[in-house]
Design a protein that fits this description.
The complex is a heterodimer of chains A (about 160) and B (about 625). Chain A is of the alpha+beta class and about 160 residues long. Chain A has helices at about 10-20, 25-40, 45-50, 55-65, 85-90, 95-105, 145-155; strands at about 80-85, 115-120, 135, 140. Classes of the chains: A alpha+beta (about 160), B alpha/beta (about 625).
Chain lengths: ~160, ~625
């Protein structure tokens, strides 16, 4: 198994992928782990997974592009998910998204030039009782107003 | 077989009474989003500063999202008091007056938990008679917000795993017969009789069978399953084990969406603890039954909530639905007989065997038994979780429990059933909520999300919102759904931007018919429902958009016109600066004007104006 590209991948990562060989249906967990390690799915990593799990690359790519969670491009240091679920939609979620976009000068799905923030779409964060809601990295913020969006974004390093 | 009775008695002794003050913080996802972490920090800080000897514990969400952050304070020999709207700034007073002075702060106290042992405080209502809970029947969610979900002992002392113990001494067929007799129907949306489903999987031939728990909760605006997983994870595990025993499975998978990290964490911990107690793994409670449970984390695709797509996703494939038959009960996960149920369904199973089939069947209506958990969201005054007996009316849920509409606005519609459901108007509020009544009026139970809408919500925009969602989430496998959702969305976009024509209404209805009858899975079959139900009950709004080029609720941007009120404008130039297309003219301290030819109706001027001088019609 020699692959020129996989030279860029570190040994620990390769070992983790090898471990998935033991389990049934582990393509998605393998991709999830890859994304945790690299922040996105580098092509070389997907090629390596395809080899190790003996799954055609086309299928790996098919799965990676089917699910909203997976990204093929690197993203910013902080990921902002503004909820576009129903409860948030009727409670002004679209205005919150607009405000975040305005403040960061990017659109949903994009990353700021300094690689600090990315905005990603999400359908519901399950905190609908506090709508409108957004999540920055692992932290959820509820009962948002434009002013609070200001404060929150300003407070992030 | 080993009995849990002695252990349970020992634990009850241990937890019987507390020897020092105990403060418990509601830390579900919503509590944390409202700042529970900061309240917890403030509490630790204040307790240390005052040198108090108290226990600080964590529980999950009790269901009052509108009152987050919730904190419970219990003193030895007094009933616990639950507070709402606690902020870090309120912590000190709560400690000083309640913990030190034994005088609960009445303004913030929501209710007390009367237990018959201790004399209740005066002037605080009991939970059962408090505004929010008086009309509720908390059975499935009885432990949520009351026990620590991270401690199996607290599940055991509240009679957890008692149902499993009983089941392990019963013949599998009798277990299935009991579930049939209870009348339980699936809480995942369709309302399929659970006993019948188990019978199919039981009768299917196979050397290996699987149990699957659908915790994908894709309906945006619903969070019942999350609350159960975060608040009472063992109930779900227990239900799965009972199902496994009944159909002859020894392995189970829980498919949880990635957006629920806290639920995943608590489930993992619950599985680990259950194994330590011999309640999961080989020879459970020293019986001949063995069962193991794995967690699979979803990767963000609504269609994976559909059970055959979910099975593909567990197998590591793209989450596309399978052709049926064969049904999963015959050929499911990795081709083996599989039983899939929803989170709340499994939580009901554990309850049924703990409290008895007859008791269960006595709650609810003729054809819909038990209770249903709803999440109340949108423009409702009290957002949160509400559990009521099946057959309760929507009006009771929205007004008696939810407190009506926010800011005393007028009710317009309630959306039930998510992207597969429908919007119901005021005159449908008195129908009883059960599976069959909802179908009759063009909605469906769905998972239990209720999104309340007021007069400021445009129903055509709501239809467009759902179609945007379904179109994006359609997996693309079958043509009617893939193309149908796209065409419907195009038409709705046209109507909301003022370019619709009356024939569009017919086109929508025709597309809906085709999609309903020919789509491969439930996504495409039900995606037209939000459009059909709004057409049925709010056709006048469609007509206003099409004929008068007007959005009566003032939502659809393209149909609005902006102008400046000369009386109010002071000429500050803020609007002109905010306008992205330079449509506003005027000099400092002179009234400004908007040129409608250039204006793109984005509303930026209205947001920029501090004097309410921009008028939108
Ligand atoms: C597009 C689509 C999405 C669904 N999403 C969910 C879901 O998020 N959770 C769920 O339990 N069932 C969902 N279902 C229903 C499942 O296919 C299945 O009927 C259900 O999990 C069966 O469990 P029950 O019998 O306990 O209700 C969905 C169905 C469709 C068609
Ligand atoms: S709709 Fe936004 S959190 Fe659920």
């Amino acid at each position: 198994m020699t692959n020129r590209n996989s030279n860029h991948l570190d040994i620990k990562f390769k070992k983790m992928m090898e471990d998935y060989k033991e389990h049934k249906g582990s393509l998605i967990p393998a991709l999830q782990t890859t994304q945790e390690v690299y922040g996105y799915l580098p092509k070389e990593a997907m090629e390596y997974i395809s080899q190790v799990l003996e799954i055609p690359f086309s299928e790996v790519f098919g799965v990676a592009t089917f699910y909203a969670q997976f990204r093929l491009q690197p993203r910013g240091k902080h990921v902002i998910k503004v909820c576009s679920g129903t409860a948030c939609h009727v409670r002004g979620g679209p205005h919150i998204l607009k405000e975040v976009e305005k403040q960061l000068h990017i659109k949903s799905g994009e990353t700021t030039n300094d690689n600090k923030f990315s905005i990603e779409p999400v359908a519901c964060l399950g905190a609908c009782g506090l709508a409108p809601v957004m999540m920055i990295d692992e932290e959820t913020f509820g009962r948002l107003t434009k002013e609070r969006v200001h404060q929150i974004l300003d407070s992030i390093e | 077989m080993r009995s849990l009775k002695l252990l349970r008695n020992d634990l009850k002794e241990k937890y019987h009474s507390i020897s020092k003050p105990r403060i418990t913080i509601g830390m579900g996802t919503c509590g944390i989003a409202a700042g529970a972490d900061k309240v917890k920090d403030a509490l630790y800080h204040a307790v240390a500063e005052k040198g108090l000897d108290v226990d600080i514990e964590v529980t999950s969400c009790i269901g009052m999202c509108y009152k987050e952050v919730n904190v419970e304070v219990a003193l030895p020999d007094y009933p616990p008091v639950v507070y709402g709207d606690i902020t870090p700034a309120r912590v000190t007073r709560m400690l000083e007056e309640h913990v030190v002075g034994n005088t609960p702060v009445l303004e913030w106290a929501e209710f007390q938990l009367e237990n018959g042992k201790h004399t209740p405080y005066q002037d605080i209502s009991s939970m059962e008679s408090s505004d929010y809970y008086f009309h509720q029947t908390r059975e499935v969610t009885s432990r949520c917000g009351r026990i620590s979900p991270e401690n199996i002992e607290e599940y055991l002392i509240t009679d957890g795993y008692e149902g499993l113990e009983k089941v392990l001494m019963t013949q599998p067929q009798k277990v299935i017969d009991d579930i049939k007799a209870s009348g339980l129907r699936g809480r995942g949306g369709g309302g399929f009789p659970t006993g019948l489903k188990w019978q199919f999987a039981h009768d299917a031939e196979g050397d290996k069978k699987y149990i699957v728990c659908n915790a994908d909760e894709g309906d945006p605006g619903a969070f019942m399953d999350r609350s159960i997983l975060e608040g009472d994870p063992h109930a779900v595990l227990e239900g799965m084990m009972i199902a496994g025993y009944a159909i002859g499975a020894d392995e189970g998978y829980i498919y949880v969406r990635a957006e629920y990290p806290l639920a995943i964490k608590r489930l993992k911990r619950a599985i680990k603890q259950a194994k330590e107690y011999g309640l999961l793994g080989d020879h459970i409670l020293e019986s001949s039954f063995s069962f193991d449970i794995h967690i699979k984390v979803g990767a963000g695709a609504f269609v994976c909530g559909e059970e055959t797509a979910l099975l593909n996703s567990i197998e590591g494939k793209r989450g596309m639905p399978r052709l049926r038959p064969p049904f999963p009960a015959v050929k499911g996960l990795w081709g083996k007989p599989t039983n899939n149920n929803n989170v709340e369904t499994y939580a009901n199973v554990a309850l049924i065997f703990r409290k008895g089939t007859e008791w269960y069947a006595s709650i609810g209506t003729e054809n819909s038994k038990g209770t249903k958990v709803f999440s109340l969201t949108g423009k409702i005054a009290k957002t949160g979780l509400a559990e009521v007996p099946m057959g309760t009316t929507l009006r009771q849920i929205i007004y008696d429990i939810g407190g009506g509409i926010q800011e005393n606005k007028r009710f317009k519609a309630v959306q039930i059933g998510g992207p597969s459901g429908g919007c119901l108007p005021e005159d449908k509020l008195d129908i009883p909520v059960d599976y069959d009544s909802l179908i009759k009026v063009g909605a469906m139970m769905g998972s239990g999300g209720l999104v309340v809408m007021d007069e400021a919500t445009c129903m055509v925009d709501v239809a467009r919102y759902f179609l945007t969602f379904s179109q994006a989430e359609s997996c693309g496998k079958c043509t009617p759904c893939r193309e149908g959702t796209t065409r419907m969305l195009e038409i709705l976009n046209r109507i909301t931007s003022g370019e619709g024509e009356m024939e569009d209404i017919e086109r929508l209805e025709r597309l809906a018919r085709v999609m309903k009858t020919t789509s491969l899975c439930g996504l495409g079959q039900t995606a037209p429902n939000p459009v059909l139900s709004t057409l049925r009950y709010f056709k006048d709004e469609y007509i206003a958009h099409i004929k008068d080029k007007r959005c009566p609720s003032g939502v659809c941007n393209h149909l609005l016109t902006y102008s400046i009120d000369a009386e109010k404008c002071i000429g500050c130039t803020a609007c002109a600066k905010a306008c992205p297309v330079n449509a506003i003219t005027g000099t400092v301290k002179k009234t400004h004007e908007i040129n409608p030819e250039i204006c793109i109706t984005c509303g930026a001027c209205m947001e920029a104006c501090h004097f309410d001088a921009v008028i939108r019609v």
